[in-house]
Amino acid sequence: MMPLWSWIVIWAVLVVGLIAMLVWFAVRLFRKLMGTLGALEDLGDQLAELDLDRELPRARFHPAVFADRRALAAAIDQARLTRLYRRALRRDLAISRGKLLQHSPYKPEDRPSC
Fold first, then answer.
1. Are 95 and 88 in contact (CB under 8 A)?
2. How far apart (Å, rounded) are the C-alpha atoms in residues 64 and 62?
3. pTM as predicted
4. pLDDT digit string, tens, across residues 71-98
């Protein structure tokens, strides 16, 4: 049976070790946070140099109620065709990626040795 003072010493060492570990983690986290804040400050300075405060001139708003019906129908058809083209292009790219994954060139020398 261990005397009472040995249990007190063991638990005191464990508690001191835990506190030291937590302090070490806090210092590391603080240093990382300060590094991140410094990088964000540099990024803010770079963004300030870009002068993004200028507003681009906007196109004047024309309500569709007053527009020509045939021109609106043509614009809608053109947007639909563009959307279909982009969708087909994405589909073709996905199919080609899938074929590449399914039919990858197999070389016996790439096989790991057992």
1. no
2. 6
3. 0.41
4. 999 999 999 999 999 999 999 988 887 7
| Cα–Cα distance for residue pair 77/84, rounded to 1 Å | 10
Place of tokens 């010493």: 9
Q: Contact, 72 vs 64, CB < 8 A?
A: yes
Alpha-carbon span 111 to 107, nearest angstrom: 7
Reduce the secondary structure of the chain to three states and give it as a string. CCCHHHHHHHHHHHHHHHHHHHHHHHHHHHHHHHHHHHHHHHHHHHHHHHCCCCCCCCCCCCCHHHCCHHHHHHHHHHHHHHHHHHHHHHHHHHHHHHHHHHCCCCCHHHCCCC
Cα(29)–Cα(27) distance, integer angstroms: 5
Token pair 């009472």 is found at: 4
Largest separation between any pair of C-alpha atoms in the chain? 98
Taking the chain, what is the end-to-end CA distance rounded to the nearest angstrom? 54
